[in-house]
Amino acid sequence: MEELYVGMDLHSSNTYTGIMTKGFKRVFAKRITNDLPLILDALEPFRKDIRGIVVESTYNWYWLVDGLMDAGYDCLHLANPSAIKQYEGLKHVDDKYDSFWLAHLLSLRILPEGYIYPKEERPVRDLLRKRSFLVKQRTSHVHSLKSMIERNTGKRISTRELTGPRSIDMERLLKEEHLILSAGASKSNIEMLNYHIKIIEKAVSKKIKVKKDFEFLQTVPGIGQILALTIMLEVGDISRFPKVGDFSSYCRCVSSKSLGSHLEL
């Protein structure tokens, strides 16, 4: 049999798998429940002829790409959904599923690809992403509390005063029962978020250190060890950005139209 290309249209509960020859002849098409053994069983009869497998970079691709790589498929490709739109004109009229379209682009070697971030480093990177999310939540609660205090008392309270070791007496400051209750809710959330942020920072600091190539980041005002680690893990292998513009695209400093093969969601 001639070489085969596999397209996987991944959804939340199933994956539509399409396999086609280099000449665009469809040899397999099936919707498979998102269960790795079932997917591997479906691919097994075609294994020796498969030259490429492409999975679109959706929110839930980790388990599928990792599982296929662990099973010995070293021809994995991650499709860049932002850049792939430029090729929509190549879709056949009868293309009901995107799997064959992805396989088609791969066989033509024009598939816009995303970056498959190393599995070993991904958990720590994602943990720091969780920290960033929690920091944004904490900032939101702080701003909300400061705004409420200023709105009702005319006093401006600094962030340090609200989150520092010396706690402000909200009952004395606000007086009104419901305002005190609202302030208490914000303070409780801030304290809870502080607790989890510190746990994350401690765990990450124990696991990894800032690499030599990224140490200069800590010379920038406002960038300490944790933020330097966050940037380092988000960048990953800097060589995946051929040009400065590619890195700017990844950082969302320019339009997503400029996103290239460096994308990884």
Shape: elongated
Determine the CATH superfamily of the largest domain: ATPase, nucleotide binding domain
- Which CATH class of the largest domain is shown? Alpha Beta
Averaged pLDDT:
89
Number of strands: 6
Main sheet, how many strands, which sense, barrel?
6 strands, mixed
Approximate strand percentage: 5-15%
Give the C-alpha Rg: 25 Å
How much helicity do the residues have? 40-55%
Poorly predicted regions are: 258-262
The CATH topology label of the largest domain is Nucleotidyltransferase, domain 5
Overall number of structural domains: 2
Q: What string gives the helices and strands in order? A: EEEHEHEHEHHHHHH
Task: List the strand order in the largest sheet.
Answer: 3-2-1-4-5-6
- Quaternary form: single chain
Per CATH, the architecture of the largest domain is 2-Layer Sandwich
Counting H and I runs of at least 4 residues, what is the number of helices? 9
**N-end to C-end Cα span:** 35 Å
Would you kindly provide a written description of the structure presented here, covering whatever features stand out?
This protein is α/β, with parallel strands linked by helices. The chain folds into two domains: 111 residues, ATPase, nucleotide binding domain (Nucleotidyltransferase, domain 5), CATH 3.30.420; 86 residues. It is built from nine helices and six strands; from the N terminus they run E-E-E-H-E-H-E-H-E-H-H-H-H-H-H. It has a six-stranded mixed β-sheet. The protein is elongated and about 80 Å long.
